[in-house]
Design goal:
By secondary structure, this protein is of the alpha/beta class. It is 43% helix and 19% strand. It has helices at 2-22, 55-70, 88-107, 125-130, 157-162, 189-214, 222-225, 233-239, 248-259, 276-292, 311-318; strands at residues 31-36, 43-50, 74-83, 85-87, 114-123, 135-138, 143-145, 230-232, 244-245, 265-270, 300-302, 305-307, 323-325. The strands form three sheets. Strands 1, 2, 3, 5, 6, 7, 8, 9 and 10 form a nine-stranded mixed sheet that branches. Strands 4-13 form a two-stranded antiparallel ribbon. Strand 2, helix 2 and strand 3 form a beta-alpha-beta unit.
Length: 329
């Protein structure tokens, strides 16, 4: 009996570990927990933006804000950011979702204040999202800024040539740039210019968002600040990228003062804990991935670290992606 209990406990620990590493969204539900007690009709909603900014993160913010919009007792939102950034599309979706939240609250004659509280980092896409806020706090140890665009790419043509492998991909007549950026053939100058233009377009969008969000608070020209550098909190404040240096409780206090709350209740919106039913598909996908990679753990081990080399990983190497992300962590 003790053996079965031990096995069961081990299984549950492994399941929970998988949940933590995969960033499950917890379905469509939202859990609201109280951070600090106060009057129920004087709520400050804490909405976390944590980890990689991707489609899952954008969906999560959308769900949280839907719930906040439905609650007339919420008088202000504190967006708590701790992220290195992520994809261009997801970062922009979150930024636009925050703007839409503010407009919908205005339309209902409700307070639309959004205060940002930055934790360890709010870099690149994290700062992009922060620009939808009305007032930005950063902790003394926060990294932020990193205004720029990445399009990671790798070229394997030299390696393939060494083994006598040549790419013979066919593209439709006239679609000159269909295979631009292929990692399996030598880099083409016209392709590089084309891809550079895509990155520069996303870069201009980033600078426009910063200019719109920070406006006259910027102490320098946006082109000088948008150099890809990560700024510490004191530098960001001097540049006008943030408004104040402080901690989450400072953001709560500022929000309460601004909207005139005497006894605010601080509530956090988050995903519910994963259920066993939601974890079973994850376990199954992990098992299938391991089988596809030809081993129990899957992938290959490099310097003691297991690296999956299945189709999804190879696709990420082969397909250029625009990122608002800091890779310096």
């Amino acid at each position: 009996m003790l053996v079965f209990l031990a096995l069961g406990g081990s299984l549950m620990l492994n399941v929970l570990q998988l949940a933590g590493t995969e960033g499950l969204s917890g379905g469509r539900g939202v859990v609201v927990t109280q951070v600090a007690a106060g009057d129920a009709d004087q709520q400050i909603a804490v909405v976390p933006l944590e980890g990689e900014i991707d489609a899952i993160a954008a969906d999560r913010i959308d769900r949280f804000l839907q719930r906040v919009e439905e609650n007339p007792n919420v008088k202000a939102v504190v967006l708590e950011i701790d992220t290195p950034g992520g994809t261009v599309t997801a970062s922009d979706e979150i930024y636009q979702r925050l703007l839409r939240y503010k407009q919908e609250r205005k339309d209902k004659n409700r307070s639309d204040l959004v205060v940002v509280s930055m934790k360890s980092m709010a870099t690149s896409g994290g700062f992009y999202a922060a620009c939808a806020g009305d007032y930005i706090f950063a902790e003394p140890t926060t990294f932020t800024g990193n205004i720029g665009v990445l399009m990671p790419s790798f070229n394997f043509s030299g390696l393939l040539n060494k083994y006598g492998v040549e790419e013979t991909t066919i593209v439709s007549t006239g679609a000159t740039f269909k295979n631009a950026g292929s990692p399996y053939r030598p880099e083409q100058e016209q392709d590089r210019k084309y891809l550079q233009n895509l990155a520069d377009h996303a870069f201009k969008l980033f600078k426009d968002v910063v200019s719109a969000g920070r406006g006259t608070r910027l102490t320098g020209k946006i082109d000088d600040l948008a150099n890809g550098k990560v700024y510490v909190a004191s530098e960001a404040k001097d540049a006008g990228l943030i408004d104040a240096i402080g901690y989450p409780h400072d953001a709560y206090d500022y929000a309460a003062r601004t909207v005139g709350l005497k006894n605010p209740s601080i509530v956090r919106y988050q995903d519910p804990p994963p259920s066993l039913a939601s974890l079973l598909p994850l376990l199954n996908s992990r098992s299938n991935a391991a089988s596809a990679n030809g081993g129990g753990a899957g992938g290959v081990t490099l310097n003691g670290i297991n690296v999956n080399v299945g189709p999804e990983t190879l696709d990420r190497f082969a397909t250029p992606r625009l990122l608002y992300r800091w890779n310096g962590q």
